[in-house]
């Protein structure tokens, strides 16, 4: 058993694990017991210090979140002794996980739809099947958190009206628009769109974060308006992060081509590039070294951090777990690197963060973060 565990962790470190093996290791860590006969805290700290002394030269201000850190630590400790290796993997410093955190579950498929006539439909409560018929366009709730628009009759050109779908904090949803475009909405996101697109354009408005797979139509460009920015495409795949509490609006292109415009000008994006709009200066910049996996992690049900500060991490947690965050004392300026599954309950997430010297307390749905 010990030999097999060692072999599996070595595969994880080398990046050769299958998705199933990776899930086994990460779930293994999250479910580790904290037994009474655990090694003395000083032994663990001494071993941990040796690991940190050998980490890659990112500088002392960068900390690995625990799942990734455990993999690196394991490979280094193997050089010391197999016994110490398993001590480090199995045990961690004692910590208290508040009962309230265990009861705060991750988000799920939740959204509210507002029709053109003002009717509000809570999609959580609505049954699968037809919800409404607007001028020959049927709105249907499908399984697995999807909303579909199906054209049964060609609407009159004079018909106008908008629908709005909004996910709350702790919600996500997918909507398939009348033109075949698919949109995935992250938590705390609002998308406004006509239930029948015009003949010359397809215009939608976004607040929050969404991933678009736009149906090709050379006659009608698809435009996404986010505050002072407009993204124009003919048919492509891209992600927009436009939360009001973030300092920048990020548009990331995965496939095709897009033009991003603001008051200060415009940029053309190619696959693997990202535009960044500063919320205060309205200036557009281009990032051609974007980490696509990080930007799309939310859609793949993962939190992914790469040199992110604590406040940035907590904003994401606040949206997905529907909690408020307050800070006390001096908050660390250190950066964090790593991944956390978004299907973890909040106790598991903070179990990881607390190993990186962050103290978490909870009262109801208010999370207090205290610096050292």
Describe this structure in words.
Residues 303-369 form the Protein FecR C-terminal domain. Residues 164-258 form the FecR protein domain. Keywords: Membrane, Transmembrane, Transmembrane helix. The chain is 24% helix and 37% strand. It is of the alpha+beta class. The chain has three domains: 2-94, no CATH class; 100-104 and 301-370, Phage tail protein beta-alpha-beta fold, CATH 3.55.50.30; 108-294, Jelly Rolls. β15 (237-242) and β16 form a beta hairpin. The radius of gyration is 23 Å and the shape is globular.
Quick structural overview:
By secondary structure, the protein is an alpha+beta fold. Helix content is 24%, strand content 37%. It folds into three domains: 2-94, no CATH class; 100-104 and 301-370, Phage tail protein beta-alpha-beta fold; 108-294, Jelly Rolls.
Number of helical stretches of at least 4 residues: 9
Say what the CATH topology of the largest domain is. Answer: Jelly Rolls
The CATH first-level class of the largest domain comes to: Mainly Beta
**SSE-based structural type:** alpha+beta
Work out the number of β strands.
25
Q: Can you tell me the overall shape?
A: globular
Main beta sheet, described? 19 strands, mixed
Provide the fold topology.
Elements: H1 2-14, H2 19-30, H3 41-53, E1 62-64, H4 66-78, H5 82-90, H6 99-102, E2 108-109, E3 112-114, E4 120-122, E5 129-134, E6 137-142, E7 146-151, E8 162-167, E9 171-176, E10 182-185, E11 189-194, E12 202-213, E13 222-226, E14 229-233, E15 237-242, E16 248-255, E17 258-262, E18 265-269, E19 274-278, E20 284-287, H7 292-295, E21 302-309, H8 310-321, E22 324-328, E23 335-341, H9 346-354, E24 359-363, E25 366-370
Parallel strand pairs: 1-23, 2-9, 7-9, 12-13, 22-25
Antiparallel strand pairs: 3-4, 3-8, 5-6, 6-7, 8-11, 9-10, 10-12, 11-12, 12-15, 13-14, 14-17, 15-16, 16-19, 17-18, 19-20, 21-23, 24-25
Helix pairs in contact: 1-4, 3-4, 4-5
């Amino acid at each position: 058993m010990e030999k097999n565990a060692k072999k599996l962790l070595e595969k994880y470190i080398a990046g050769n694990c299958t998705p199933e093996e990776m899930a086994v290791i990460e779930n293994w860590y999250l479910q580790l017991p904290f037994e009474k006969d655990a090694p003395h805290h000083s032994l663990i700290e001494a071993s941990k210090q040796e690991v940190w002394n050998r980490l890659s030269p990112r500088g002392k201000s960068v900390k690995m979140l625990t799942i990734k850190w455990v993999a690196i630590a394991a490979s280094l400790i193997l050089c010391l002794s197999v016994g110490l290796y398993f001590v480090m993997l199995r045990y961690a410093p004692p910590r208290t996980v508040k009962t309230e955190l265990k009861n705060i579950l991750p988000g799920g498929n939740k959204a509210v739809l507002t029709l053109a006539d003002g009717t509000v439909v809570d999609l959580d409560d609505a049954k699968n099947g037809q919800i409404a018929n607007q001028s020959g366009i049927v709105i249907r709730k499908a399984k697995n958190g999807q909303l579909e628009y199906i054209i049964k009759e060609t609407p009159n050109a004079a018909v106008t009206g908008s629908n709005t779908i909004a996910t709350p904090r702790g919600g996500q949803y997918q909507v398939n628009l009348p033109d075949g475009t698919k949109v995935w909405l992250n938590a705390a996101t609002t998308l406004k769109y006509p239930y029948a697109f015009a003949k010359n354009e397809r215009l939608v408005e976004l607040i929050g974060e969404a991933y678009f797979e736009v149906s090709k139509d050379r006659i009608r460009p698809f435009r996404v308006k986010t505050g002072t920015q407009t993204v124009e495409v003919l048919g492509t795949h891209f992600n927009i992060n436009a939360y009001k509490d973030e300092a920048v609006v990020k548009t990331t292109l995965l496939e095709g081509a897009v033009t991003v415009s603001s008051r200060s000008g415009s940029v053309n994006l190619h696959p693997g590039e990202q535009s960044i709009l500063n919320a205060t200066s309205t200036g557009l910049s281009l990032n051609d070294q974007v980490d696509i996996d990080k930007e799309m992690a939310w859609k793949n049900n993962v939190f992914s951090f790469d040199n992110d500060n604590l406040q940035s991490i907590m904003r994401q947690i606040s949206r997905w777990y529907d909690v408020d965050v307050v800070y006390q004392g001096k908050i660390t300026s250190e950066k964090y690197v790593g991944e956390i599954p978004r299907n973890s309950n909040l106790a598991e997430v903070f179990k990881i963060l607390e190993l990186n010297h962050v103290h978490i307390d909870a009262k109801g749905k208010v999370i207090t973060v205290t610096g050292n």
